[in-house]
TrEMBL record:
Its main location: mitochondrion. It comes from Cynoglossus semilaevis. It catalyses: cholesterol(in) = cholesterol(out). It is found in: Mitochondrion. One of its GO terms (molecular function) is cholesterol transfer activity. Pathway: Steroid metabolism; cholesterol metabolism. May interact with TSPO. InterPro entries: StAR, StAR-like, START-like_dom_sf, START_lipid-bd_dom. This is START domain-containing protein 1. One of its GO terms (biological process) is steroid biosynthetic process. GO terms for cellular component: mitochondrion. Keywords: Lipid transport, Lipid-binding, Mitochondrion, Steroidogenesis, Transport. Residues 84-269 form the START domain.
């Protein structure tokens, strides 16, 4: 959870958790270490991050580091959105404790932050949401399929995702996804990209996701519980009024979390 933001905007406080700023600084430090370890003579990357300035992507598009840097940059931008406490408004408060807040960011796009506690370990959620992302359609009926097009090391992937037909029609997404995995916390982030070899597909509208991120953090003293924070930032590229889009997207978050809980329950039942 992000207690500083949630306490201010949603009226919920989890005093045993670190503040959003600490979570963000931790992620910045981890990604900075990644950049340091990936330095090359042709792509010198400054490992001292300034949180107020997005880092320039220094690798060339044909360099394997290029998409990794895009994923890292998108993650940091998403964390900055979460860290900014101003402007958040409550959209939903569910009886199970799930809370969704929203705010308008520069560019007039509305983003949504979901906060939940899930009955699963950090490793289990990382496995379902990143390591086995191609299997997500098996438990999430909102997705037709996800295909990993490229692996860039163990922490970055390029994916093509196709949604099932819904209110917006059928959408596809071309994204880079990056992960930072620690002992008790995982950051998953990324955003939309373009590939010359994978242009928009016939029959679909190419929507854009990101910068976005998910933070999964273990609940103190609970090996089978995790705090789950998800920033949804999406341009669905549709003709519907923005007011309808802004009502529909947070409901999609609640639906996703419901499907995820069913999957976790099934895993527990099957042992």
């Amino acid at each position: 959870m992000l207690p500083a933001v949630v306490k201010l905007c949603c009226g919920i406080s989890y005093p045993h958790l670190r503040s959003t700023a600490v979570l963000q600084c931790t992620a910045v430090a981890v990604i900075g270490q990644e950049f340091t370890s990936l330095q090359r003579p042709r792509a010198q990357i400054d490992s001292s991050f300034d949180e107020t300035k997005p880092k320039r992507v220094t690798a060339e598009p044909n360099d394997p580091l290029f998409h990794m840097q895009l994923g890292q940059q998108a993650m940091l931008k998403a964390l900055r959105i979460l860290e900014d406490k101003d402007g958040w408004e409550v959209r939903f408060k569910e009886s199970n404790g799930d809370v969704i807040c929203s705010k308008v960011i520069p560019g007039a796009r509305t983003v949504f932050r979901l906060e939940a506690v899930l009955e699963a370990s950090v490793d289990e959620l990382y496995d379902l949401l990143f390591a086995r992302v191609e299997e997500m359609h098996k438990w999430n009926p909102q997705i037709q399929h996800i295909k990993v097009l490229k692996h860039i090391g163990p922490k970055t992937i390029v994916t093509h995702e196709v949604s099932e037909r819904n209110l917006f029609g059928q959408r596809d997404f071309l994204s880079v996804r990056h992960s930072c995995k620690q002992k008790s916390r995982v950051y998953l982030g990324g955003g939309a990209i373009k590939l010359e070899k994978f242009p928009p597909q016939a029959g679909f509208v190419r929507a854009e996701d990101g910068p976005t991120c998910i933070i999964i953090e273990a609940v103190n003293g609970e090996s089978r519980k995790s705090h789950f924070t998800w920033l949804l930032n999406m341009d669905v590229k549709c003709w519907l009024p923005q007011s309808i889009v802004d009502r529909t997207l947070p409901q999609k978050q609640l639906d996703f979390t419901s499907y995820l809980r069913r999957r976790l329950t099934a895993s527990t039942t099957l042992g």
